[in-house]
Design brief:
Layout lengths: L8 E5 L4 H11 L4 E8 L6 H16 L1 H4 L2 E8 L2 H5 L25 H16 L3 E3 L15 H15 L4 E3 L7 H23 L11 E2 L2 E2 L5 H18 L4
């Protein structure tokens, strides 16, 4: 564990997807104590919520040195996002690009609300760091995933709870191939297999077919991004000179 982080206590925004699973491993490798929080906002891909406990249990089984640092899990109701409506993440609509250039999988305010709720929970639980899997490198242009957004939010939340609070985004400047590489570096083949088999990212909520990169429909933007990243990482791993 890195000495400067040895006393810090983290809360990981843990959806059950590839990115948040990698971030949970990253946090367990660095922090003295880690709790997790998930959000039920009426998302169509509710399979991710069902994967969360399996991921936590398998992480503890395969990595007992991390199990000692893993604390409670929390699931908070963020159903108000579903009440607002208008998103392919919460309503049965075809995924498409909106007039403003953003995909209709964008849920406005989602990450802002998630971090606000996480900050309130962290205040009550005595945790000083929030960890999220947002990235500007391989993403759909969501404005609440941008580094500047989250830096501004860190300041606002710290002021709002009158307590220093750090937002860590270890994937911010990584693409999906780099994210697979991070998992390999953190936990070798065991962690990569765990993320392949136990995480869920597919927007269509499909878990029938297991691909090299994990379960999913293979057609939605989330599956395509994950598959492309896995293929690029596999080629890089097979031929490290290129």
């Amino acid at each position: 564990m890195k000495p400067q982080l040895a006393r810090r206590r983290a809360l990981v925004l843990f959806s059950g997807g590839q990115d948040s699973a990698t971030c949970l491993a990253w946090a367990l490798d660095r922090f003295a104590f880690v709790e997790t929080v998930g959000f039920d906002y009426g998302q169509r891909n509710h399979a991710e919520l069902q994967c969360r406990q399996t991921l936590r249990e398998n992480l503890c089984r395969h990595f007992p040195h991390w199990a000692e640092r893993l604390g409670e899990d929390h699931v908070l109701d963020a159903g108000v996002l579903g009440q607002i409506g208008g998103s392919a993440m919460t309503e049965p609509m075809r995924i498409a690009v909106q007039d403003d250039g953003l995909p209709n999988t964008f849920v406005p305010g989602r990450n802002l609300l998630f971090f606000t709720l996480a900050a309130a929970l962290a205040y009550r639980r005595g945790l000083d760091t929030l960890v999220g899997g947002m990235s500007e490198t391989d993403y759909s242009g969501y404005p609440d995933c941008r580094d500047n957004t989250l830096k501004a939010l860190q300041v606002a939340l710290s002021l709002g709870i009158e307590r220093p609070l750090t937002i860590e985004t270890p994937l911010m400047w990584l693409d999906k191939a780099d994210t697979w590489e991070m998992a390999d570096q953190l936990g070798s083949d065991a962690l990569v297999r765990l993320i392949q088999q136990d995480s869920h990212t597919c927007y269509q909520n499909e878990r029938e077919a297991l691909h090299d990169w994990g379960y999913g429909c293979g057609r939605c933007p989330a599956c395509e991004l994950r598959a492309k990243g896995y293929a690029n990482w596999s080629r890089r791993r097979a031929d490290p000179g290129h």
